[in-house]
Amino acid sequence: MTATRTRPAPASAYPRATAAPPSIDIDFKRLERLRWLTRLMDTRWRIPGTRIPVGLDGIASIFPVVGDTATAVVSAYIILEASRFDIPKSLVARMVANVVLDWAGGSVPVLGTIFDIAFKANRMNLDLLHKHLEDRLAGLA
Could you give phi then psi for residue 54, rounded to 5 degrees? Predict the structure, then answer.
């Protein structure tokens, strides 16, 4: 009988058992700034005598088009900062659609102010960001 010799396989052919698990980078300071700015824009105060929250977005809509355009710029900044969390383009598109709807609805005189107080685009966008980050973290577990 003859012995058969085999060469050992290259080290790269075997997966490393000590490989670090994938991680996700979350800038918590940025996330906290977005929470603060969202609250300021949508729910910072209450209308006296009610439980209805109002922020700068609802107050600025008293000035049709001009006020809504100014708050839409702030909302665009919130989307820009949220996109730095490496979110999918489809999610960014949903956020932009929320802001465009908020701007268009809020630009209508009188009724736009009521719409702006009821429709919280920044709050919805922050909720979308939170859900995405939670889903991504759950995928790592």
Answer: -145, 145
